[in-house]
Amino acid sequence: MGLSALGSPFPAPTGIVDYAFRKPGDDPALSVLGALNQWGNAALEVDANLPLAKGLSVAAGGAVFDDRFYNATRASFWQFSLAARYAPSDAIEIVPFVARSEGFDQTGPIFLPAGEGLPPRLPRRFFKGPEWARYRGVAFNGGVLGTWRPGPGWELRAGIFRSLFDDARGFANLVTDLDQAGNGNQLVIADPPVKFASTSGELRLTRTLIDGPRTHRIHASVRARAGDRRFDGSDFIDLGPTSIFAPTTAPAPAFTFGEQQKDRVRQIIAGIAWEARWPGVGELSLGVQGTRYAKRIGLPSLPPVATDASPLLYNATLAIEITPTLVAYAGTVTGLEESGIAPGNAANRNEALPAIATRQRDAGLRWAISNDVRLVAGVFDVRKPYFNLDAGGRFDALGEVINRGVELSVSGPITRRFSIVAGSVLLWPRVTGEGVALGRVGSRPVGAISRRLELNLDWRPPLLEGLGVDMAISHRSPEVATVSARTRIPARTLVDLGARYSLKLAGQSVLLRLQVENLTDLQGFELQGAGAYDLIPGRRIGGYLTIDL
Description:
Elements: E1 29-37, E2 42-53, E3 56-68, E4 74-89, E5 92-106, E6 109-113, E7 134-148, E8 154-178, E9 183-191, E10 194-211, E11 214-231, E12 235-243, E13 261-278, E14 282-298, E15 305-309, E16 312-323, E17 326-337, E18 356-368, E19 374-389, E20 395-413, E21 418-432, H1 434-437, E22 451-459, E23 467-476, E24 479-480, E25 488-489, E26 492-505, E27 508-517, E28 525-529, E29 532-535, E30 540-548
Parallel strand pairs: 6-8
Antiparallel strand pairs: 1-2, 1-30, 2-3, 3-4, 4-5, 5-7, 7-8, 8-9, 8-10, 9-12, 10-11, 11-13, 13-14, 14-15, 14-16, 16-17, 17-18, 18-19, 19-20, 20-21, 21-22, 22-23, 23-26, 24-25, 26-27, 27-30, 28-29
């Protein structure tokens, strides 16, 4: 939301769902990237652009990765993409595209302490198997984007998309009831083949009107999607008592899978929006959408559980130019959005959760300190249902979460060679509902923090043209880790340091980049769900070389 919502006719409370597609260009190009790091990770990427005729060009890309991680697991995968652009005139553009990836990765452990409290110090670069717990799957995305401008001030845009995630096998590797000596019980959850397929599309008509210094845009949009998911039927393999410092050598069992559930979603959204821009005065954006949402979930042998919703959604954003360098803004928006799937340590693992109603209000100021440096300060209030683990271990709605906060950011070049991007958020998150009143749920949500600070610096020293040095510093306050809110992960500050050097080699553009992540080798925990933990990766040194041919 905020000023970023201006220019998007149908924003969402938790973000603008609008991606910029990199279209094939009119000039031939070939780029090759190779990357390595000290853990043995290796990657090779190739991107190419080829114009075939006037108004017709294609782009292709491919990559192979061999990754090794902080917990000594390994992953290998490849991906390929192909796109074309056909623009016989300024009035017509058609862009078909397709992308496919396939790979496997070993499943590292997630640690769940007995009761409240954090895990003991976890070993790094140690593989806590079992070896046979390897995910393997395929992802596919394809579609067509089209634009037609039949006359001055008219634009018709359309898109249809198909996405498929087909997992041949998947696992959750849990070390439960973990004590401070590193002893616990190892449980592996094996999934039968699961699949999620989605078909979606949008048709949007835009009319632009010029009224003296003012510009008006009216958008009419129809969107629809159909999603089908097959999940559940998992097999639970109890490997018994274990130590986090001992390897797991249990042989692969013969899996026994149960009946799988089916999840079906159908949704259609029709909306109309108006945008007005008046230079020197301000901007206004108003929108309203009607949606029909239907979800059916259950076993094929039983009647499905139905969830239906038909809310009327709205958004409004106003920006006023107080002075040529100072802009005030305010906005409100409601939404209906999917809330993901239940995590691996939930009793309803992988279950697609129902759509939830969300709403956001915000206001603030943007100050142009100079032509290039801008400061934004704002307040916000975001509300939505709170999903987490209930007393029975099921991931379900436990109340409502309210996120109120203040955000401040500044960005831009301070000098010709020195740039800064800095931001801070102060938060006052809380949970409301019967569970909080009865003491079963903490008043702060899992994952809640009270402050986050980000600082990114970039400097191009004058001593060597083409050289750049950058630093990123990220600070986060203590993080709520359990539903009761009694356990928190300590505050942490991570520092990354990088350098790049661009030059010409045999007439070709070359970029060399080196980076050190987690410069101080900070140790700590990464939250993977309520009462579930992984470790922060340690210091990692790597780099890549890009050649543009």
